[in-house]
Design brief:
single chain, 231 residues, alpha+beta, two-stranded parallel ribbon, 4 strands, disordered N terminus
Length: 231
């Protein structure tokens, strides 16, 4: 994940509230000034409907999964290994692909009930570039057809919508456990930009500050932070 300042290839006049990944949420994003993705409404809706995870591939964590236990999310010393979530793979739970009418209202086509389809259409309507175009602008090697798997599975021949590209990139380049070069850089630059522009953040108030809970090897992460506050 990049931790450098935003690249000069980011256009200052194109702020976009872009859906990045289900994990990253929606960030106010300044995207590269690149040509928009070429596609059509029918193809995007079909791709959105195809994003459902089979019902038998979901696991109900039960009541325990609804309690905050930090050791389930982070590896902490003296505790069992953290509980890993499902790997990112470009799919959504069926409940998000078949949203109820109470949420969507009446729709002309079933494809409009899919959150994936809505995100794909929204990115297209905003003129977002394809994931491959962003990768090239970032100097990263774009995913190939085998890594994307869209041409073989769905007959998709255009370049990939950015939202879906970030998910497939994580699957292909990060083993589904972390974001890849495009997704990671988008998230990192947004978070770092927020901190740098916050006049009350540590970077603004005490730029020389360094965490005092370092491990013996000099590293500092969530485990050290949680230990320090007694979580």
């Amino acid at each position: 994940m990049a931790t450098t300042s935003p690249s000069s290839c980011l256009a200052p006049d194109r702020p976009v509230d872009a859906p990045v990944t289900p994990l990253a949420g929606r960030y106010g994003r300044k995207l590269p000034d690149l040509p928009p993705l070429e596609s059509d409404d029918e193809a995007l809706l079909a791709l959105g409907l195809a994003a459902a995870i089979p019902d038998d591939d979901l696991v109900d964590g039960g009541e325990a999964a609804r309690r905050i236990d930090w050791s389930l999310m982070f590896d902490l010393p003296g505790r069992q290994a953290a509980q890993r979530g499902k790997r990112i793979d470009g799919r959504l739970p069926r409940a998000l692909v078949e949203l109820p009418a109470a949420i969507t209202g009446e729709v002309e086509r079933e494809g409009y009930r899919s959150l994936a389809g809505r995100d794909l259409q929204r990115g297209f309507g905003l003129g977002l570039p394809s994931g491959e175009a962003v990768a090239r602008a970032f100097g990263a090697r774009p995913l190939d057809d085998d890594e994307l798997g869209l041409r073989q599975a769905h007959g998709w021949t255009a370049e990939t919508p950015l939202w879906l590209y970030v998910l497939k990139e994580s699957q292909a380049r990060g083993g589904g456990d972390r974001l890849g070069p495009v997704g990671g850089r988008i998230v990192a630059e947004v978070l770092i930009g927020i901190i740098r522009n916050d006049p009350e953040s540590h970077l603004a108030v005490a730029p020389e500050w360094r965490p005092g809970l370092l491990r013996d090897d000099g590293a500092f992460g969530m485990a050290e932070l949680l230990e320090g506050i007694g979580a």
